[in-house]
Amino acid sequence: MRGVTEAPGANDADDTRPDDTQPVAAQPDDARPDDALPVDDLPLLDDLMPWSVAPLRLGRSWIVAPDARTLRSRWDRLVAAEGAEREALFRPSRARTPASTVAALPGQRTGTVRWAREPGPCPEPVRIACGPFDERLLLPDHRLIDTARPELWRVAGEPQLFAVEQGYVPGAAGPALLVTAVLPEGRSPAGRPGRIRPLFRRPGGLEPNLAPGLLGFLGERYGHDVDALEWLAWTVAAARPSPAGCRVPLPEDPEVWAAGVALGRDLVDLQTRGALTGTKPRLPGGRRPYVRATVPPRPEAMTYDAAEEALCLDEGRISPVPAEAWEFGVGGARILEQWFAHRTAPAEPGSLDAIGPTAWPQEWTSELLDLVTVLALLGAREPERAVLTPEAAGSTGREKLRAAGVLPPPAWSRRPASVLDHQEEGPEGQFMLL
Question: How much is the pTM?
C-alpha cells in the first residue's frame, strides 16, 4: 500500500513573493474597534522574516516513503533494471533524467557522476516533512530531485527551525504557520503553497532571519531582550492568513506579548514533537489513545465514531481520540485523513511507487498514536490561539515599523547568506567553495 502518486510538477511553486498589491478581503465595520488597524495594515511575515524559499519540487514520488526499507528496495529495483525499463521506472522530467549532472546536496554523501553511468550505493534516507505533521523519509540524492533548494540543506540541523506558511484558503480553520525541526518539503494540503522561512540564516543558529532592527525594536517595547525563538513563538501563536501572505500583529501591551509567547512556545514544542523541551508530547493519564482492535493488514477507510471517541481503520479501533484531534485541519483538510491517504492510496502497478509494505506495519500504528496525541494537544489550545486577534493585541502597523527603520528590509536580507568556508562536491566530482 503506497501513498498518492504525485504527477510531475504537482508540487511546483514559483519563486514569486507575496506583496501588498494583492487584494485583501474587506473587513465589516463592526469587525474591529474604531481604533484597530485593518488587517492589510499589519506587517507581512514576508517583510519581518525576509529570506524565504519556495517549496521543494521532488519531481518523482517514489523517492519518498514512510520507511527506509521501502526506499532501499526501490533503489535496488531501479539499479537492477536496464534500458527502456530503467528509464521508465526512473520517471524522467525536464529537470532530471538518468543522464543529468548536478552537485551533491549540502551535507550528503551521494554521487555526482551521472546516475546512468554510476548510480553508486543507495543513499542513507533522511527525514523530511512532507506536508503538515507528516514526516517521511527521502532519498537525498540530488540526481533524483527536480528542485531540492540546496540553500535550505546548508542551514539545516540543530538548532534550526523552519516556519512554513500554509496555502491561503478563505474561512479555513487551523494555523496559518507551522514549524518543523526537519527539512520541510513545503507541501500544503490546499491552495497555493506558502514559503519556507528558516529561523536562522547560517548553520549553528547564527544570524536570525529577521528584518535588521526588529529584535531591538521589540526589546525596547517590551522591556527585555527578545531573541529569535521568542519572536517565532509569538508569530506561530498570532500570525493570521491573508491573500497576500501571513500577517503578524505586534501588540503594544507587554502582557499580551508575554501571553502570546508562552502559548507559542507550547505550540512550537508540540509541532516539532518536543524539540524545544526534549520531552515527547503526552496526553494526561486516562486520555492517552490505545489500540482497542488491531488494524487489519490492508485498511481501506478511516472514519471517526464521535460517540465512542474512536478512530476506525476498517475494523481496527484506536481510542480515546478527542474530537479536536479528528477535526484538526490545515488549509481546509483534516490532517488525520491526509496522513492515512498518503499511506494507503493505490499506486500504479509495476511502478516503483508500488513497492512497499504488503501489510500495515506496526510502526505506522505507533506513528498514528503519536500524531493523534499531537493533534489533540494542539486542538485543545486552538481557542487560546483564536482569541489572540490583532484587535486584542492592539497591534502596531507598518508605518511605525517604517519610522523605526525596521521596514523595508534591505535587499541583502532576502538572499541566502554566503558560506565562504563551505566546500561542496559539484557535478562529475568537481569541488567548489561557496
Answer: 0.89
